[in-house]
Amino acid sequence: MAHPDRSSRPITAIIDRLEDTTTRKQVTLRCMIEAFGKSSFTTAMCVPALLVASPLSGIPLFSSACGILIASIAAQMLVGRKHLWLPNFVMNRSVGNKTMFAALRRLHRVGERIDAITRPRLSALMTLPMRKLYQALCVLCGVLMIFLEIMPFSSSILGMATIFFATAIIVRDGVLACLGVTIMCLGASLPLFALQAM
User: pLDDT digits over 31-78, tens only?
Assistant: First the structure.
């Protein structure tokens, strides 16, 4: 399958590559992340973020597994590691290929919409110190997913925020980074809204 240019359609290209891994009966997080190599930190972080933003987030503990991966990848980016290391107990988590393929198909429309609005802009917000801030926020998103496992939709919202941060870093889109901050705040505040409603 020919893949789109990742520089112009980064999210769609990642989803296309992920679909290529669904030929096995059980698809592990390991095979999905390693399809991009161990040095593609930002792209690798998009993988669990995309998965948790899909209907797969309804699988028990799947959001926590994705949160651990996101936090781990972002933390290693933050400290400047050259090669990615991820825990086996999370990487070996698997999902049936039909379930995974259906989830990725539903993500295509989301990916196309994000790619359509993404372009280099507000370069002042994409300097190295700011990129480090977005990586730190991705760590926070991942950790929050673990604690908000039982809160409906919160992990998917935080996953979408992570996608925005990662795409902003790839394309150098400061506007998308700002949207990521807004979405992250929304996802993190859901428990407060739930408590007020009780």
Answer: 888 887 766 889 889 999 999 998 888 888 889 999 999 999 999 999
Half-sphere exposure of 121 (CA within 13 A, CB side): 7
Residue 122 lies in a domain: yes
Q: Rounded to the nearest 10 degrees, what angle do helices 97-117 and 154-171 cross at?
A: 50
- 136-164: burial string, b at 16+ Cβ within 10 Å, e else: ebbbbbbbbbbebbebeebbbbbbbbbbb
- In terms of residue numbers, what domain contains 75? 10-197
pTM to 2 decimal places: 0.86
Residue 180 forms part of a structural domain: yes
Burial (Cβ within 10 Å: 0-12, 13-18, ≥19) of residue 42: buried
Domain count, the chain: 1
